Amino acid sequence: MKIDELETIPIAIDRNEVFRISTGSSLTAENVIVKVRSDNVTGWGNASANSVTQESVESILKASEGMRSEVEGKDIELEEVWEKLREKLPGNPAAIAGLDIALHDLKGKLEEKKIWDMYGGREQGVLTDRTIGLMTKTETREHASKFIEKGFKAIKIKIGFGVLEDLRRIQAVRDIVGKDTDIWVDANQAFTPEEAITLCQKLKNLDIQFVEQPVREGDLEGLKKVTSETDIPIMADETIKSPEMAEKICTEELADMINIKLMKSAGLTGGRKIVEIMEDYSVQGMVGCMGETSISIAAGAHLHQTTENLRYADLDSHFMLSDNIASGLDFKDGKLWTSDKPGLGVDVDKEKMEDHRMELEAIS
Ligand SMILES: [Mg+2]
User: Fold this and answer.
1) Which of 38, 58, 79, 257 has the greatest count of CB atoms below 10 A from its CB?
2) How far apart (Å, rounded) are the C-alpha atoms in residues 71 and 349?
3) CA-CA distances (angstroms) from residue 283 to 273, 278, 305, 358?
4) Where are the alpha helices (DSSP H) in 72-134?
């Protein structure tokens, strides 16, 4: 695949409201849109600035300059480039994700194939949750009720106030959504292993599908302890940032499930590698997201449709933004639907994208 040009566009889009989790809060989502061109065909990608991989718009743009010489004016092979970039830029998985997603979009368009089809998947829609950040019990209940009205069939609740307060909020959501809605819980590393075990015991009767990242990301012993001593499935998120760590989690049974995010796995190539490991070990999990636009959310939806092992999808960040810069990913009956077009199947609205462009002075 011949690449003529690589372009990066840093953008900032306001969120509809402040999004707060146990490790911090955010009012604006910053992303770098990646554009690759081969003759007159364009592929689009999205790299998200985020605190999990500790990448900023500045570091993503800098890494993209380092990637330019590996692709521009060259005839490339996707996986080969991915391996090279991971070696060259080990601290920039989100930056690599932006390019890797754009290259997948381009390849799909050139071969007239949807991305899920490139990996032998099937189209079935992707049931996604809506996430409720850290907020009071009343606000939590109001948000849950609003999301159910909009058609969502799963609610993810961010926790981290403390076991009792968090339990009250989760109970309030269960009371309002009834028993047919999934409730997922994400602690974002807020607890000690002992607190997490207490929490999980108290959650027993609330029919919770899983608890995500209860303990600090580096506390592998604590993660394993919580996993082995509780009945509710424990999902690793911040702990797993690479296929190598996915392998370790599976072989050492550190967690029951894995949350893949394209910004952590360095894109679809890395995401697929983690999926293959999950399939080998019969481990299930979820595809999640950072504060991304619908460009890379579509990429996550494609990945979801390549395997049965991604049982859940937390692909909701584009719903939280005040503007949507790409069309083609629809939401209907609680599910995201990728379009009939090849590649990612999205159309980027260039005018809208330019409206959100960050000034270069501000990022130099
Ligand atoms: Mg999480």
Assistant:
1) 257
2) 25
3) 13, 5, 16, 40
4) 78-88, 93-111, 115-118
Q: How far is the CA of 72 from the centre of ligand 1 (A)?
A: 35
The predicted-structure confidence for 18-70, as pLDDT tens digits, reads as follows: 999 999 999 999 999 999 999 999 999 999 999 999 999 999 999 999 999 99
* 2-113+349-363 and 117-345: identical CATH topology: no
Which candidate in 107, 158, 224, 264 is catalytic? 158
Q: Write the pLDDT tens digit of every residue in 70-127.
A: 999 999 999 999 999 999 999 999 999 999 999 999 999 999 999 999 999 999 999 9
Domain residue extents for the chain = 2-113+349-363, 117-345
**Known catalytic residue: 74?**
no
Report every protein residue that has its C-beta within 5 angstroms of ion ligand 1.
186, 212, 237
Return the H-helix or E-strand segment holding 165.
helix 163-177
CATH of domain 2-113+349-363: 3.30.390.10
pTM for this predicted structure: 0.97
Cα of 283 to ligand 1 centre, how many Å?
Answer: 17
114 classed as catalytic: no
Please tell me the class of the 117-345 domain: alpha beta
Residue 115 CA, ligand 1 centroid: distance in Å: 25
Question: How far away, in angstroms, is 186 Cα from ligand 1 center?
Answer: 6
